[in-house]
Amino acid sequence: MTLTKRKYLSEFAVNIYSARWMMTTAEQLMSGGEMPADELEVSKKCHIYLICKTPILSFCNESFSYEGGIISGDIVYSIDGSHRKIPFTHEFPLLDGATKVELSKYPHREIHSLNEKNEVIRYLPANVISMGYGMHLKNKELSDLEVLYVGQAFGDGSRSAHDRLKSHSTLQKILAEAQYSYPEDIITVLTFEFVPYRIIHQMDGITKAQITDERDMARFVSIRENHLTKHQEICLVEAALIRYFQPRYNEIFRESFPKQKHKILESCYELDFSALIVEINTEGLRLSLYSKTVKPSYHHTSKFDLVAHEERWGFFHLSSGDGTVSIMPHVITSS
After folding, report:
1. Mapping DSSP to helix (H, G, I), strand (E, B) and coil, where does residue 289 land?
2. DSSP state, residue 27
3. I need a labelling partner for 65 at 20 to 30 A (CA). Which of 10, 110, 184, 228 fits?
4. Separation CA 267–CA 273 (nearest Å)
């Protein structure tokens, strides 16, 4: 009979998941405009940002028209050199002293209403029309955002995540390379708030554990009474998402996380958590995140085994009842 590697009757996982989030184009981020109060409140509480790319949308100059308060024409974009267009019709009345409507200068990414002095009164970007009409729901390439970089924008409420990002060196690098490397795409920044972590308790009633006495209960009490700090949580989220998406502009953690020597895992090992589960969700706008190694999805769950399972069975090990044990699929293991 195989000697059990089940150390405790109970195993515990740290589960951290996203809540509110915002999407901003890099152009909007760098423009220096002011956010509405409700958006600013979210931005100040965001902890993680993702730099992504998605096809850039423009208006077709040849088909655009404005008659009787109605704008119409085609939204155009390209995928690997293949040009595509989607027709639209939308109300756009002249308000606040505007006297005419026209497209912005090439590459025609906005519709402007102007007054008699040719001052812009209102503007309507192509991506707003696309989202408003749900074009991304019928054209999947418009709903998929490739994750290029994952970073930490730990929010203490003093400055918004977007303010901190304006001078970020990696964002500047990506923007500098975008025109050459991604001429068909626009760089977007997604910022996420993560709620306080929860503890998931798993108990194996089949496999005989080595420790089932009061020491097992003491671990549970210790985990409940000794909390990870918010900063520790966000460091774990950042490392987990980097390892999961393996973005091309990240280096640290992209292939190495988790390792038992990583300092950000010290608190987890002290409390004897054996797993980390990080979830990120963009279903609210029906947008999917993906990378070169991860398929597009509204909801991503990254699972990490924090113990060396060659030595000890952890949270993701399942007993079958016949003496065999298997590990759940799609779990990233510790080394």
Report:
1. strand
2. H
3. 184
4. 9
One DSSP character per residue, 46-74 reads: --EEEEEEEE--EE-TTT-EEETTEEEEE
| pLDDT per residue of the chain (335 residues) written in tens, 0 to 9 | 355 687 787 889 999 999 988 888 776 665 555 556 666 677 677 889 999 999 999 999 999 999 999 999 999 999 999 999 999 999 999 989 999 999 999 999 999 999 999 999 988 899 888 988 889 988 989 999 999 999 887 655 555 566 666 666 777 888 888 878 889 999 888 989 999 999 999 887 676 766 777 887 888 899 888 999 999 999 999 999 999 999 999 988 988 898 888 889 999 989 889 899 999 999 988 999 999 999 999 999 999 999 877 778 888 887 776 667 778 889 998 76
* Tokens of residue 188, six digits: 């977007």
Closest Cα to residue 102, out of 151, 64, 49, 146?
Answer: 64
Query: What is the spatial distance between Cα 178 and Cα 181, in angstroms, rounded to a whole number?
Result: 5
Task: Tell me which residue of 33, 284, 290 sits closest to 162, measured CA to CA.
Answer: 33
Token pair for 5 = 């590697």
Q: How many residues does the chain have?
A: 335
Contact present, 280 and 241 (Cβ < 8 Å): yes
Residue 17: CA atoms inside 13 Å, Cβ hemisphere, count? 12
pTM: 0.87
- DSSP per position, 261-272: T-GGGHHHHHHT
Residue 258 and residue 276: Cα distance in Å, rounded? 10
Distance separating alpha carbons of residues 91 and 71, to the nearest angstrom:
6
